[in-house]
Amino acid sequence: DAGITQSPRHKVTETGTPVTLRCHQTENHRYMYWYRQDPGHGLRLIHYSYGVKDTDKGEVSDGYSVSRSKTEDFLLTLESATSSQTSVYFCAISVGGDGEAFFGQGTRLTVV
Amino acid sequence: KQEVTQIPAALSVPEGENLVLNCSFTDSAIYNLQWFRQDPGKGLTSLLLIQSSQREQTSGRLNASLDKSSGRSTLYIAASQPGDSATYLCAVRDNYGQNFVFGPGTRLSVLP
User: Fold this and answer.
1) Cα-flanking dihedrals φ and ψ of residue B51, to 5°?
2) Which of A45, A61, A95, B101 could form a disulfide with A57 if both were Cys (CB 3.0 to 4.6 A apart)?
3) Within an 8 Å CB–CB cutoff, is residue A99 touching chain B?
Protein backbone atom coordinates (compact mmCIF):
# COMPACT_ATOMS: atom_id res chain seq x y z
CA ASP A 1 0.00 0.00 0.00
CA ALA A 2 3.09 2.22 -0.22
CA GLY A 3 2.53 3.37 3.36
CA ILE A 4 -0.35 5.78 2.74
CA THR A 5 -2.84 6.41 5.51
CA GLN A 6 -5.94 8.55 5.17
CA SER A 7 -7.91 9.85 8.13
CA PRO A 8 -10.71 9.82 8.93
CA ARG A 9 -12.03 6.96 6.81
CA HIS A 10 -15.62 8.09 7.19
CA LYS A 11 -17.09 11.43 8.19
CA VAL A 12 -20.51 13.02 8.30
CA THR A 13 -20.59 16.77 8.66
CA GLU A 14 -23.09 19.59 8.40
CA THR A 15 -23.31 22.13 5.62
CA GLY A 16 -21.21 25.21 6.31
CA THR A 17 -18.72 23.58 8.65
CA PRO A 18 -14.99 23.34 7.87
CA VAL A 19 -13.57 19.86 7.40
CA THR A 20 -9.96 18.70 7.19
CA LEU A 21 -8.86 15.40 5.73
CA ARG A 22 -5.38 14.08 6.35
CA CYS A 23 -3.07 12.04 4.16
CA HIS A 24 0.08 10.61 5.72
CA GLN A 25 2.90 8.78 3.95
CA THR A 26 5.67 6.85 5.65
CA GLU A 27 8.26 7.53 2.92
CA ASN A 28 9.63 10.86 1.72
CA HIS A 29 7.95 10.94 -1.67
CA ARG A 30 7.84 14.35 -3.22
CA TYR A 31 4.52 14.27 -5.07
CA MET A 32 1.18 13.93 -3.31
CA TYR A 33 -2.32 14.33 -4.70
CA TRP A 34 -5.93 14.69 -3.63
CA TYR A 35 -8.66 13.28 -5.87
CA ARG A 36 -12.38 12.98 -5.50
CA GLN A 37 -14.39 10.15 -7.03
CA ASP A 38 -18.03 10.56 -7.98
CA PRO A 39 -20.41 8.41 -10.01
CA GLY A 40 -20.51 9.66 -13.58
CA HIS A 41 -17.40 11.81 -13.14
CA GLY A 42 -14.73 9.31 -12.25
CA LEU A 43 -11.58 10.47 -10.48
CA ARG A 44 -10.85 14.19 -10.64
CA LEU A 45 -7.80 16.01 -9.32
CA ILE A 46 -8.45 18.60 -6.60
CA HIS A 47 -4.94 19.75 -5.63
CA TYR A 48 -1.46 18.35 -5.71
CA SER A 49 1.88 19.05 -4.04
CA TYR A 50 5.41 18.78 -5.37
CA GLY A 51 7.17 19.51 -2.10
CA VAL A 52 6.86 21.14 1.31
CA LYS A 53 4.81 24.31 0.92
CA ASP A 54 4.63 23.74 -2.86
CA THR A 55 1.09 23.10 -4.04
CA ASP A 56 -1.01 23.71 -7.11
CA LYS A 57 -4.63 23.52 -8.18
CA GLY A 58 -6.24 20.72 -10.07
CA GLU A 59 -9.38 20.42 -12.13
CA VAL A 60 -11.91 20.86 -9.29
CA SER A 61 -10.17 23.04 -6.70
CA ASP A 62 -12.96 25.53 -5.91
CA GLY A 63 -14.01 25.29 -2.26
CA TYR A 64 -10.88 23.36 -1.26
CA SER A 65 -7.52 24.36 0.13
CA VAL A 66 -4.45 22.29 0.95
CA SER A 67 -1.37 22.53 3.07
CA ARG A 68 1.87 20.64 3.26
CA SER A 69 4.09 21.73 6.13
CA LYS A 70 5.90 18.39 6.34
CA THR A 71 6.92 15.98 3.59
CA GLU A 72 4.85 13.17 5.05
CA ASP A 73 1.54 15.01 5.54
CA PHE A 74 -0.82 16.54 2.98
CA LEU A 75 -4.00 18.11 4.34
CA LEU A 76 -7.16 18.85 2.41
CA THR A 77 -9.56 21.41 3.87
CA LEU A 78 -13.12 22.08 2.84
CA GLU A 79 -13.46 25.65 3.95
CA SER A 80 -17.27 25.58 4.24
CA ALA A 81 -18.68 22.18 3.34
CA THR A 82 -21.53 21.95 0.83
CA SER A 83 -23.67 18.99 -0.21
CA SER A 84 -21.91 18.95 -3.59
CA GLN A 85 -18.73 18.00 -1.76
CA THR A 86 -20.22 14.72 -0.63
CA SER A 87 -17.82 12.28 -2.24
CA VAL A 88 -15.09 9.75 -1.74
CA TYR A 89 -11.70 11.43 -1.41
CA PHE A 90 -8.48 9.66 -2.32
CA CYS A 91 -4.94 10.62 -1.57
CA ALA A 92 -2.16 9.42 -3.87
CA ILE A 93 1.60 9.57 -4.09
CA SER A 94 3.95 9.31 -7.03
CA VAL A 95 6.97 7.13 -6.43
CA GLY A 96 10.44 7.51 -7.86
CA GLY A 97 11.61 8.40 -11.32
CA ASP A 98 9.13 6.02 -12.91
CA GLY A 99 6.30 8.00 -11.42
CA GLU A 100 4.16 5.04 -10.39
CA ALA A 101 1.09 6.16 -8.47
CA PHE A 102 -0.20 4.55 -5.29
CA PHE A 103 -3.47 5.36 -3.60
CA GLY A 104 -4.79 5.44 -0.08
CA GLN A 105 -7.97 3.63 0.96
CA GLY A 106 -10.15 6.70 0.67
CA THR A 107 -12.28 8.87 2.93
CA ARG A 108 -16.04 8.78 2.49
CA LEU A 109 -17.39 12.24 3.30
CA THR A 110 -21.08 12.99 3.62
CA VAL A 111 -22.27 16.59 3.95
CA VAL A 112 -25.81 16.87 5.29
CA LYS B 1 -6.60 18.99 -22.48
CA GLN B 2 -5.97 15.27 -22.13
CA GLU B 3 -9.05 13.08 -22.25
CA VAL B 4 -9.13 9.38 -21.50
CA THR B 5 -11.86 6.97 -22.52
CA GLN B 6 -12.35 3.29 -21.81
CA ILE B 7 -14.31 0.71 -23.76
CA PRO B 8 -16.37 -1.19 -22.88
CA ALA B 9 -17.98 0.46 -19.87
CA ALA B 10 -18.99 -2.95 -18.55
CA LEU B 11 -18.16 -6.53 -19.44
CA SER B 12 -19.46 -9.86 -18.23
CA VAL B 13 -17.64 -13.08 -19.16
CA PRO B 14 -17.63 -16.72 -18.02
CA GLU B 15 -14.71 -17.93 -15.99
CA GLY B 16 -11.69 -19.04 -18.02
CA GLU B 17 -12.10 -16.62 -20.90
CA ASN B 18 -9.33 -14.39 -22.12
CA LEU B 19 -10.39 -10.76 -22.40
CA VAL B 20 -9.19 -7.34 -23.51
CA LEU B 21 -9.95 -3.96 -21.98
CA ASN B 22 -9.30 -0.83 -24.00
CA CYS B 23 -8.06 2.64 -23.05
CA SER B 24 -7.72 5.61 -25.42
CA PHE B 25 -6.18 9.01 -24.84
CA THR B 26 -6.23 12.16 -26.95
CA ASP B 27 -2.74 13.61 -26.40
CA SER B 28 0.15 11.28 -27.23
CA ALA B 29 2.68 13.36 -25.26
CA ILE B 30 2.47 11.13 -22.22
CA TYR B 31 5.06 10.32 -19.56
CA ASN B 32 3.53 6.99 -18.64
CA LEU B 33 0.28 5.02 -18.46
CA GLN B 34 -0.89 3.00 -15.50
CA TRP B 35 -3.61 0.39 -15.05
CA PHE B 36 -5.44 0.00 -11.75
CA ARG B 37 -8.17 -2.19 -10.33
CA GLN B 38 -10.72 -0.99 -7.84
CA ASP B 39 -12.93 -3.25 -5.78
CA PRO B 40 -16.26 -1.86 -4.53
CA GLY B 41 -15.75 0.53 -1.64
CA LYS B 42 -11.99 0.21 -1.81
CA GLY B 43 -9.02 2.18 -3.01
CA LEU B 44 -7.12 1.75 -6.26
CA THR B 45 -4.56 -1.02 -6.62
CA SER B 46 -1.77 -0.54 -9.14
CA LEU B 47 -1.56 -3.36 -11.68
CA LEU B 48 0.89 -2.29 -14.36
CA LEU B 49 2.88 0.80 -15.25
CA ILE B 50 4.09 1.38 -18.81
CA GLN B 51 6.61 4.13 -19.51
CA SER B 52 6.21 6.12 -22.72
CA SER B 53 9.26 4.39 -24.23
CA GLN B 54 7.89 0.90 -23.59
CA ARG B 55 5.50 -1.17 -25.69
CA GLU B 56 4.22 -3.59 -23.07
CA GLN B 57 4.44 -4.84 -19.52
CA THR B 58 3.47 -8.18 -18.05
CA SER B 59 2.57 -9.34 -14.58
CA GLY B 60 1.28 -12.86 -14.14
CA ARG B 61 -1.92 -13.26 -16.17
CA LEU B 62 -1.98 -9.55 -17.06
CA ASN B 63 -0.37 -7.96 -20.09
CA ALA B 64 -0.65 -4.29 -20.93
CA SER B 65 0.38 -2.79 -24.25
CA LEU B 66 0.92 0.80 -25.28
CA ASP B 67 0.72 2.38 -28.73
CA LYS B 68 1.51 5.99 -28.03
CA SER B 69 1.21 7.20 -31.61
CA SER B 70 -2.37 5.99 -31.88
CA GLY B 71 -3.26 6.95 -28.32
CA ARG B 72 -4.22 3.44 -27.22
CA SER B 73 -3.50 0.93 -24.52
CA THR B 74 -4.96 -2.49 -23.92
CA LEU B 75 -5.07 -4.66 -20.83
CA TYR B 76 -5.18 -8.37 -21.61
CA ILE B 77 -6.35 -10.73 -18.87
CA ALA B 78 -5.69 -14.40 -19.50
CA ALA B 79 -7.81 -17.22 -18.09
CA SER B 80 -10.13 -14.92 -16.16
CA GLN B 81 -11.26 -15.86 -12.64
CA PRO B 82 -14.17 -14.68 -10.47
CA GLY B 83 -11.61 -12.89 -8.29
CA ASP B 84 -10.79 -10.65 -11.26
CA SER B 85 -14.23 -9.05 -10.94
CA ALA B 86 -13.63 -5.36 -10.28
CA THR B 87 -13.51 -2.01 -12.03
CA TYR B 88 -10.38 -1.46 -14.12
CA LEU B 89 -9.10 2.08 -14.59
CA CYS B 90 -6.39 3.44 -16.81
CA ALA B 91 -4.60 6.71 -16.11
CA VAL B 92 -2.12 8.72 -18.15
CA ARG B 93 0.50 11.12 -16.90
CA ASP B 94 1.47 13.75 -19.40
CA ASN B 95 4.80 15.39 -20.13
CA TYR B 96 3.60 18.85 -19.13
CA GLY B 97 2.90 18.27 -15.50
CA GLN B 98 2.86 15.67 -12.84
CA ASN B 99 -0.83 14.88 -12.82
CA PHE B 100 -2.74 11.77 -13.73
CA VAL B 101 -5.85 11.85 -15.91
CA PHE B 102 -8.17 8.91 -15.41
CA GLY B 103 -10.56 7.11 -17.68
CA PRO B 104 -14.08 6.28 -16.44
CA GLY B 105 -13.26 2.61 -15.97
CA THR B 106 -14.50 -0.77 -17.19
CA ARG B 107 -16.59 -2.79 -14.75
CA LEU B 108 -15.70 -6.46 -15.18
CA SER B 109 -17.76 -9.38 -13.93
CA VAL B 110 -16.34 -12.89 -14.25
CA LEU B 111 -19.04 -15.48 -13.72
CA PRO B 112 -18.27 -18.86 -12.11
Assistant:
1) -75, 160
2) A61
3) yes
